[in-house]
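@channel sequence for tomorrow's demo:
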Amino acid sequence: MSRYERIHKCCEYCRIHYAEYIVAKGTMFENLRKSLSANEVNWLLDNHTELCLRQNHHLFEYDDLARAVIKDNEGLAIKIYKIAEKLCKNGMDYSFLAISVYDVLRDLSWCKELYQKAKSSIKDGFCYVNMLNFIEIKAIDKNEANWLLKTAFEAKFDAYFYFTIACELRCIDKNHEFVYKFFKKAIDKDPNNKYFLESAYLFIKDKDELGQICAPIKRDKTIPKHKPKKQERKSIDECKRELSDIKNVDSFTTYVMFLDKNEQKQEWVHEAYKNIIQYAKEPFEYAYLAGDMAYTI
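structure tokens (generated this afternoon):
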């Protein structure tokens, strides 16, 4: 579960879809012309020159190209996705491709085929995280989804892996039984992690258990300086300005926590969440934001 800093984000709500690594050197054009007709390649060069000439390209760039041509030529978009499928190396890649194929083509049968390939090529924690995509688009049934989650749950990774799965799964189905299980395992592995503890209320419904788990922290000692005093009533413009000045995920989420519930659901808060994503540096920060947005917005 390393090198999270190279993750390519394909969703405004922070879902991890693809870790950015080069799938082929040279330009996309060189690879495309091996599988497409001369007329198709020439059309792409004429209409999408910049996309075709990207150097040292990544898997998600085939998705960019397919989305760009879908309105003019669906058949060509499908061929581009087929080329991308041949470049997939592991479950993470097939999972990324599946959510793109579903989003663009709504081809669930193809997604089911991609799941089988992903299932047989699980290499690391990234694969499990990305394979939640198949649960999201309902490409697998409940039994298969439970198998995937049980396998991920029993795998040996660090606490942040289980926390990430808990947050991502909660965005799909906050009442899923595994949401609690993954969060609890993260806590068991790192019981004093303040990011886990401060988000515990999202995962634990029992008040006694919540109080016991959160005993190691005292919230009044962890509130950042950006928090407005509770009795203060600031204007929306003031709040917008202060939120835009925050460049730390922990400070940001704490500030939002002290806004009124009605304010938390406003569009300007949603926009502020989009802005703070660029300052997230660690995997747990992305996961923390994802879980917080699911609860707040």
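heads up for whoever presents: The mean pLDDT is 82.
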